[in-house]
Task: structure prediction
Amino acid sequence: MNNNNQKKKLRSEEWFAPKDPKMGFFHRSWLRNQGYPQDHFEGRPVIGICNTWSELTPCNGHLRELAEFVKRGVLEAGGFPLEFPVISMGETLMRPTAMLFRNLGSMDTEESIRAYPLDGVVLLTGCDKTTPATVMGAASVDIPTIVVPGGPMLNGKYKGERIGSGTFGWTLKNKIKHEGFTAEDQVEAEICHSRSAGHCMTMGTASTMACMVEALGLTLPGAAAIPAVDSRKKTLAQLSGRRIVDMVREDLKISKILTREAFDNAIKLNAAVGGSTNFIIHLQAIAGRIGVGLNLKEFDTIGSDIPLLVNLMPSGQFLMEDFFDAGGLPVVIKNMKEHLHNEAITVNGKPIGENNLHAENYNKEVISDLETPFKQKAGIAVLYGNLCENGAVIKPSAATDSLMVHKGKAVVFETIEDYHERIDLPELEIDENSVIILQGVGPVGYPGMAEVGNVDLPEKILKKGIKDMVRISDGRMSGTAFGTVVLHVSPESAVGGTLALVKTGDLIELNVPERRLHLDISEEELAKRKAAWKTPEPHATRGYVKIYEQHVQQAHLGADMDFLVGGSGSYVKRDVH
Result:
């Protein structure tokens, strides 16, 4: 540590060593009731440990223990660790959808960091929305930041076979109705499906988000795939606690890491691992906070030609524990070096290429090399057309090749409740060539843009042994899901997008190679339907949901609140009085 770094004034000194001795007295005095000694207030970097732990978020249920290892590392490096909670968004239990509260979580994180005497922050994350929410909040403050992903569960194993959390669940309807799957089978599968602490062990959204923050350079190398219960996760937490103290001394702010090059790397690596479509909406929101221009089409132009190198469910057959054992994301980064900005700086102060230069692949069944990928051109495809003027997305690696070019008659469901009421009715006119249209599940329409786009197929279709159909909605789908599912249609139906105007029987054309999604009706008919359309009643008359509905942006912009784009910085004008 050089003298210049030693003399750099810490943000926390505004609280603990202010010009007004009375204020310093009060700030220090109240903290002393927890037993902190004098030297903790004498120039130690104060490190906030932002914890998304909650018993209501099973994926994050182990983070209280993990925080203790972060604290150990901070103390070893001469810092002063202070843990604080923010809202925890659990995908499995939260109604109507955890995505509704992502922006609230980002606000909680941002304002907590700004309001308290923190010089750096460690983000403890896990379940899907906790990672982007906390990163968005930290980006808007712009102090040194490091992420410790909570890690995936151990592999699910049922009757001698791997079962992936989430992914297995999407097959249940067919298994119960047509494969003799009993109630006893279901109980046993439930237990095997979630056999340890941690988040989904498929390459679902939680694992995708962990890979995203490592690809962006916000974690120590190799962090994304370490299972939650592996002792190396605790080691990572402790080393991250040490490193954040040095980041403060080096003034290595999050804005120095979240460069345009880092975002390009993340897009390409997401394609290589077969990451969730939710990646798009979260990365855009983070880019908006840090001030990096990133439009929807670039996810296609930058990432669509990238091959799939990772053989994980739902696009493949293995799970995150296998990915970790094979070498994890460092191997993918090394294999992808010719496509990446290898000079992009990461939280350890070194370029991403250098960090992963010596990664070894221990299982080529799980991680392929660039010359022999599992699938060519596996990145997200962005579609345009009169049905999605601002774009829609599809994940080809999880879809059926024969449906990539398809024309069929629409079967329209106005809400998810309408879908559940009618999808299995014997009299419903639907066949395997039909296109299921689900309206009213976008950011405003649900509200919160729920993961319901990958709706189950009708029972009459499943009886034929058919397991995929084209499905189109303004919602999202779980990263653990699969199928020929067009998502994030923008503008959404609830704000008068063309999706709201589709009627049962209309012809829909999907052409993924040509990036086209088209409603086959005349311009005159389309104009007539638009003139007759009426804005739905709002879902809420008060509280956060009302604010959300009034200010949430559309999917192609990342579904952040319009007034949250950008940042407030770390300076707070007024003291506590």
Q: What stands out?
A: Residues 1-5 have pLDDT under 50 and may be disordered. The first helix runs from residue 3 to 7. The chain has 21 helices and 14 strands.
